[in-house]
C-alpha cells in the first residue's frame, strides 16, 4: 500500500471529485438522475485509480466514492428538499 506524506495528498482526489460532482448536479438539475451521475463519477474514479498502476489505492477509491455520493445527494436535497420517505420516518 502506498504511504502518503500528508493527509492532504490522500484527500486531494476525493475533494476534487466531490466538488466536480456537486457542480455537475447543480448544472444538470433534472436532466440526469442522481444515481446515473453517481455511477458515472464512480466509473471515472475507478479508471483513474486503475491508471495509477502500482500507486492505486482501494482506500482512496472508497473515500472518493463516498465523497462523490455524499456531494451529489447533498446538492439534490438542497435543490429538491428532503424526500417525503425520509420525512415520514422522522
What does this structure look like?
This protein has 90 residues and is mainly α. The chain is 76% helix and 0% strand. Helix 1 runs antiparallel to helix 2, helix 1 packs parallel to helix 3 and helix 2 runs antiparallel to helix 3. The chain starts with 6 loop residues before the first helix and ends with a helix. The model has no long low-confidence stretch (mean pLDDT 86).
Strand portion, in percent?
Answer: under 5%
Shape: elongated
Summarize the biggest pleated sheet.
none
Q: Order of helices and strands, N to C?
A: HHHH
Structural class assignment: mainly alpha
Low-confidence stretches: none
How many helices in DSSP terms?
4
Q: For the residues shown, what is the average pLDDT?
A: 86
Based on CA atoms alone, the radius of gyration comes out at 15 Å
Give the helix proportion (percent range).
over 70%
Distance between the termini: 42 Å
What is the β-strand count? 0
